[in-house]
Description:
By secondary structure, the protein is α+β, with helices and mostly antiparallel strands. Helix 1 (4-17) runs antiparallel to helix 2. The model is unreliable at 1-25 and 753-767 (pLDDT under 50). An eight-stranded mixed sheet has the order 37-38-40-39-41-42-43-44, sandwiched between helices. The two termini are 18 Å apart. It contains 13 helices and 44 strands. The radius of gyration is 28 Å and the shape is globular. 17% of the residues lie in helices and 33% in strands. The longest helix is centred in the N-terminal third of the chain and has 17 residues, at 30-46.
Amino acid sequence: MTTPRAARAAVVSCLATLAWPVAAAAQPTAADYERAIGLREKYEAAAVGMAEPATWIDDSPRFWYRRSVAGGHEFLLVDATTLEKRPAFDHERLAKTLSAATGGAHTAVKLPFNRVQFLDKEQTLELRIGGDIWRCALGDYTCQKRETPVGAFGGPGFACAASSADRPAASPDGRREAFVHNYNVAVREKGAEAVTMLSADGSEGDCYDARTIVWAPDSTKVAAYRVRPGHRRLVHYVESSPEDQLQPKHSSRFYAKPGDVLDLEQPMIFHLDAKRQLVVDRALFSSAYDVSPLVWRKDSRAVTFEYNQRGHQVYRVIEVDAATGAARAVINEETPTFFSYSGKKFRHDVGDGEEVIWMSERDGWNHLYLYDGRTGAVKQQITRGEWVVREVLKVDDTKRQIWFAASGMTAGRDPYLVDYYRIGFDGTGLTKVTEADAHHSVAMSSDLAFFVDTYSRVDLAPVMELRRASDGSLVREIERGDLSALEAAGWRPPEVFTAKGRDGTTDIWGVIYRPTTFDPSKKYPVVENIYAGPHAAFVPKGFSAYTQMQAQAEVGFVVVQIDGMGTSFRSKAFHDVAWMNLKDAGFPDRILWHQAVAARYPWYDISRVGIYGTSAGGQNSLGALLFHPDFYHAAVSAVGCHDNRMDKIWWNEQWMGWPIGPHYAESSNVVHAHRLRGQVLLVVGELDTNVDPSSTLQVVNALIKANKDFELLVIPGAGHGPGGAYGERRRFDFFVRHLLGGVPPNWNGLDAEATGPAASWPPASQR
Length: 767
């Protein structure tokens, strides 16, 4: 049987015999493709001892982490009190058990998961393999697959059920249980058959959802949502080439899109002893995009939920008085653009709601505030300044302290690098608890005695340290990565580059990947990897031994990635550029950044610029050709959400707003397809459940109507992604043709007999 390495050698041998044109210096060679093919295997083999961030085990003084070893990874366990470090489990035994259970061929260093959860006082491992959850006993290493849990409640696909008596909610005192009977809420004594109906207003089209039933801690009251289901949009799929039969298969799934009528959730409170039902007035939540599960106060005085208004410009924390049903806004967040709940929402109730710690961008930067939970007034802005709170790690109610992550606090430094801090509820005592000039990830023990700091940069291998939380002192260095083997293998970090954005003052940050054969006397076409989704920032800040951007560079390009305006983790004004304007995608900033690089480096050729991206990046990459054709010349657009009216509701209404207006069409690649001037390769998987595949096909239809030339790659059986190994190889070849003016290998001319299935590039070991 041909091995992957032998297959790759055969591919390269065949490449050397193919008819390449008598080329200019820009023509890629077989050696260029060979380096790109082998890059991941080569670099990952040299990247040994690289630690990933730690995870503490419940309330114990122990944490686990994963690190790279020769041929794969291992899981380690550390006790912070004894400083013992050992394997987290028997990797060989677990690999053998899982191989038998799943039918896979797993080894000790190539287990089919990268995260675990310790249960039952560390006697059980829970792990996820694909879409399945497994539990493995560490005593005898037997593993069982668990039933996949059902979602919380509501949402696309929810349908009224007449009964859920088989899934009752037990009262805290154990005496009674509540359930849905004939679309209504009912209770009965535990073990009894007699049923007491609490409601009579539920019906087939406006029913109580059993999953929302919650008991008050005093066991005398129940709260639940009555739900009137909205529009049930179906997206249909045809699997053209199923593996288990000759004929195609049809399937469909619920998929809400912008503008669709949504579920209407009405909270209700029931007093069991008084047999009283309270209907909560909807004035404060009259137009919901979403509401959170109902949560009782510990003293049973009230129930709370969070309300996200349709259009994402109003967000409220609502408390409902259990005695009267009166609702009030504990927190009222309103903005003329969008309230970003993607990484910028945090709430912590102090003293059963007496105070609330809340995250907000109201002063133009993402910060923390202390609210009076009784009055809804702001008592204190806890953090302030032209920098961004990135995460709240822990809240210590006793000491009235907050442990949090932030970026941008140090002038002149990369504003995306994350450090960790401690501060008092009153805004005093701000203390930095991480030291190294790097991008940090901190995990804190449940008793707040220790924290594990794992830090790196694109040019710094990961370092893991155990520190005391009281004073930040170093207890022990757990891991320190070593770059020497990687550097000996030819690895070089990307260059971090900054340039001014469209306003002339704001720094725009990006990275530059050169081929390992880089020659500054030559000129290189530029390929930009784009993802401009407003929900985050995307330029790498931490260490990575391998990235597909480096592989793309190997066949004769300089590859870059940039975070332009409209992405997250900077000021609110920086972020708001995306509002109702996703076609912007930061392009004015990106083009200036490219021009600044070209002004510094003569080898950076912006007369030949390509761009590629997936999902939102697929929309962005095609948009580059449609809206900025004088700068971008070729694009590979994979599974793009090309018209925001066609894509999932939650992401698109968040940034494009509601109701649907003409601005949706203004950002549509379908509407503007006739403007195409450059060369484009469109990639789509026929079973993409993230972005409706019709989004790409509607672009195709518009291009045909406009008599435009384009390339289309439809991948049977594929879901959301750039097309796997085949899609990556096609992307390489596309840019070779359209930016280098070269001729890719004649892949159809390879000897299938000699190379076997691995003739598909890259070989099986790289897929």
